[in-house]
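Researcher: Re-running this chain for the archive, since the previous output was lost when a drive failed. Same request as before.
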Amino acid sequence: MRPASSSSTTATSAAMTDAELAQRIGEGDQQAFVLLMRRHNQKLFRTARSILRDDAEAEDALQDAYLQAYRAIGQFRGDAKLSTWLTRIVVNESIARSRKSRQRADVTQLFPGDEPDNLNPQTTMEPDQTDSPEQGAMRSQARALLEQALDGLPEVFRVVFMLRAVEEMSGEEVAASLGIPEATVRSRFFRARGMLRASLSSQFDLALVDAFSFDGARCDRIVAAVLRQLATP
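Model: Regenerated structure tokens:
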């Protein structure tokens, strides 16, 4: 019998459920872990970013959270979605970092205004090449307005809005991820949406789709950094 080709192996891995990936990771399969990171990178980065409000800090938090998840994957029992379990780890790590930063000093905000436009998160992490320069500029400006408005929300509203509206998690999933009642999720979400609509008005819906772009380079950088740390004795 011929050995499976690398392309067929990749296709088979891509078709695995999160639970199947978790099992493979628990058995020491790092390729399964790479696939898991790439599958959830954008959502988890946005979650960390919504708490820390700093791109570099969010990347660092996500890398540390992945290492924690890798070491604790054997504890995952499938009682909740793996994405919820991962989100909870990222939230805890980001909140811990945020508290340390506030104790040390005010964190310098690093907010690049010219990141590449983002495609639909359901498709790929590659930069969008279809916009004209004018459309790209308009999208970048609208996205920047929304990101700034989101950054201005209190943390409890900002995190709920990011998970509920941008990542389209259910109220039940957000509640499980944050450890709060679902009714609290609903009230915080509606309050956050009202505050954002008041500040952004008609530009709100235009900018939402492209908020906090997550380009291919950032995805590759996070995956490579985590693998380097795993390889360090």
